[in-house]
């Protein structure tokens, strides 16, 4: 009898425990708003802790589901990441950008409707023509100032370069020695960027005015990455690891804020000199007041047919606000006036 009683009690306890567990799956209390979700009840649409939106996103009515698809150039990846970090509570979210498609490919993705918004330098005439061919009109909203700058090794005593000289070098290969620019009697080696890069778009728009760069420069001295451009210009005259030093200095171009940001990462700026352009040295002040002539900017670009209530437009409005300008400054960029 005792054994039978023990068995009955044990069964009763197991049944009670099972019933309690089933109730816990759907327990909800108005005071605590507690919800326990288990195995089979978990929905793929459930918002994980990584995808929780910030109060700013809530204010802008941006959710994990309607977060805009954003792309851009290598130099603007920090801006795209800063937008994400402002909208999410964690960087471990589904939309956090790991890479950028680069300038021209991101424009193509926007034209094709693969992304909602890109952050890039202004489009080249080729990109604008491509958009026009398929009936797409692009809207450009300036969000940060940027400048094209010319660089050379720090040991080069040359201080200034003019528009006429730059165009002669890159269009005609017309200047082959730094002495013509008031520098040392060394060979001038012009380095260029690949055609789909942001700095090349700036070079085309601001200096070359879409005229074709000399083929020998494009063939022999093209650098495919922004970081590679800095390193090649800085150390070309040393001949590399397997060659002897040469009687030359390289000339290259990059973007002002990119060089400043790379200074904190690699220290490459200590090996480079920014040349003055038409007598004006690039600086935050000369870029902001427009006295440095090769100033343009980074733009948030969308298609004009994007819905007026789209979340990408909400992001752009925020970038134009005082709060957005604060974020731009935090990235060592220069907000537009």
Notes on the protein architecture:
This protein has 337 residues and is of the alpha/beta class. Helix content is 38%, strand content 17%. It is built from 13 helices and eleven strands. It has helices at 2-25, 55-60, 77-87, 103-111, 125-133, 163-172, 198-208, 215-220, 226-235, 256-265, 284-288, 311-319, 322-330; strands at 70-72, 117-121, 138-153, 160-161, 187-190, 192-193, 222-223, 248-255, 272-274, 276-277, 295-303. The strands form three sheets. Strands 1, 2, 3, 5, 8, 9 and 11 form a seven-stranded mixed beta sheet that branches. Strands 4-10 form a two-stranded parallel sheet. It has a two-stranded parallel sheet with strand order 6-7. The longest helix has 24 residues, at 2-25. 34% of the residues are buried. Mean pLDDT is 86; it is low at 1-46.
How do the helices and strands line up, and which of them pair or pack?
Layout: H1 2-25, H2 55-60, E1 70-72, H3 77-87, H4 103-111, E2 117-121, H5 125-133, E3 138-153, E4 160-161, H6 163-172, E5 187-190, E6 192-193, H7 198-208, H8 215-220, E7 222-223, H9 226-235, E8 248-255, H10 256-265, E9 272-274, E10 276-277, H11 284-288, E11 295-303, H12 311-319, H13 322-330
Parallel strand pairs: 1-2, 4-10, 5-8, 6-7
Antiparallel strand pairs: 2-11, 3-8, 3-9, 3-11
């Amino acid at each position: 009898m005792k054994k039978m009683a023990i068995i009955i009690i044990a069964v009763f306890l197991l049944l009670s425990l099972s019933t309690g567990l089933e109730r816990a799956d759907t327990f909800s209390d108005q005071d605590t708003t507690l919800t326990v979700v288990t195995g089979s009840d978990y929905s793929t649409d459930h918002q994980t802790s990584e995808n929780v939106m910030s109060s700013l996103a809530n204010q802008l009515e941006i959710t994990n589901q309607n977060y805009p698809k954003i792309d851009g150039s290598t130099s603007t990846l920090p801006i795209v990441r800063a937008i994400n970090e402002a909208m999410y509570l964690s960087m471990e979210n589904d939309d956090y950008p790991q890479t950028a498609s680069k300038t021209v490919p991101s424009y193509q993705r926007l034209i094709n409707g693969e992304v909602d918004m890109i952050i890039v330098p202004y489009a080249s005439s080729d990109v604008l023509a491509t958009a026009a061919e398929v009936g797409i009109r692009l809207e450009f909203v300036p969000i940060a100032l940027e400048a094209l700058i010319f660089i050379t090794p720090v040991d080069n005593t040359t201080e200034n370069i003019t528009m006429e000289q730059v165009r002669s070098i890159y269009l005609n290969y017309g200047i082959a020695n730094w002495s013509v620019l008031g520098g040392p009697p060394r060979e001038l080696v012009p380095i260029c960027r690949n055609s789909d890069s942001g700095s090349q778009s700036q070079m085309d728009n601001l200096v070359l005015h879409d005229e074709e760069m000399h083929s020998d420069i494009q063939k022999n001295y093209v650098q495919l990455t922004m970081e590679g451009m800095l390193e090649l210009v800085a150390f070309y005259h040393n001949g590399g690891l397997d060659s002897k030093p040469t009687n030359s200095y390289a000339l290259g171009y990059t973007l002002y804020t990119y060089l400043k940001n790379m200074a904190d990462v690699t220290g490459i700026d200590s090996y480079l000199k920014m040349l003055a352009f038409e007598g004006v040295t690039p600086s935050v002040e000369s870029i902001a007041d427009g006295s440095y002539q090769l100033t343009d900017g980074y733009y948030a670009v969308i298609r004009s047919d994007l819905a007026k209530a789209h979340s990408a437009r909400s992001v752009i409005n925020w970038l134009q606000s005082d709060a957005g300008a604060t974020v731009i400054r935090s990235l060592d960029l220069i907000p537009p006036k």
